[in-house]
Amino acid sequence: MRNVSINRQPVELYKILKFEGLCESGGEAKAAVEQGLVKVNGEVETRKRKQIVVGDTIEFSGEQFGIVLDEAAGADKAAAAAAKSAAVKKPAFKPTIAKTFAGKGPAAKPNAGKNYGPKGHAGKGPAPRKPRGRVNSEG
């Protein structure tokens, strides 16, 4: 039995076949699984995306492969993730105006009751319409 080391788990079945060089491409690996040429833990597996974890065994073309965790790669990845999370600081929470004054009524809001916008329009519905065309003043 040959050991296949993975640096994270779970890994999809067809990816193991592809990266171990047992199949030329991912499409070929998926076809082999779909045709029932692969066994996982002694049973024929036809799910291409079957999640493989440490301790599983794979049989393909007369060979057996045991799945083991590559601890060095896993430790490096964990250390990099820890360093990244320590370096990244989240900004402090800044509430929006709506949340700051929620439930306190319109008097608590800044600029409450002031007319602002086009021609004194306070933002309550559309602006007043202007007459179009000529206005006949002769009745």
Helix-strand pattern, N to C? EEHHEEEEEHH
C-alpha geometry: elongated
Poorly predicted spans: none
Q: Taking strands numbered 1, 2, ... along the chain, how are they ordered across the largest sheet?
A: 1-7-6-3-4
* Helix run count: 4
Radius of gyration, CA atoms, in whole angstroms: 33 Å
Q: Return the structural class.
A: alpha+beta
Number of DSSP E strands: 7
Q: How can the largest sheet be summarized?
A: 5 strands, mixed
Global mean pLDDT: 74
N- to C-terminal separation? 104 Å
Instruction: Please estimate the helix content.
Output: 25-40%
Strand content: 15-25%
Describe the structure.
The protein is elongated. With 139 residues, it is of the alpha+beta class. The protein has a five-stranded mixed sheet with strand order 1-7-6-3-4. The chain has four helices and seven strands; from the N terminus they run ββααβββββαα. The longest helix is centred in the middle third of the chain and has 17 residues.
What key attributes describe this structure?
five-stranded mixed beta sheet; 139 residues; two-stranded antiparallel ribbon; alpha+beta
Topology, please?
Blueprint: E1 2-6, E2 11-12, H1 13-19, H2 26-34, E3 38-40, E4 43-44, E5 51-52, E6 57-60, E7 63-69, H3 71-87, H4 97-100
Parallel strand pairs: 1-7
Antiparallel strand pairs: 2-5, 3-4, 3-6, 6-7
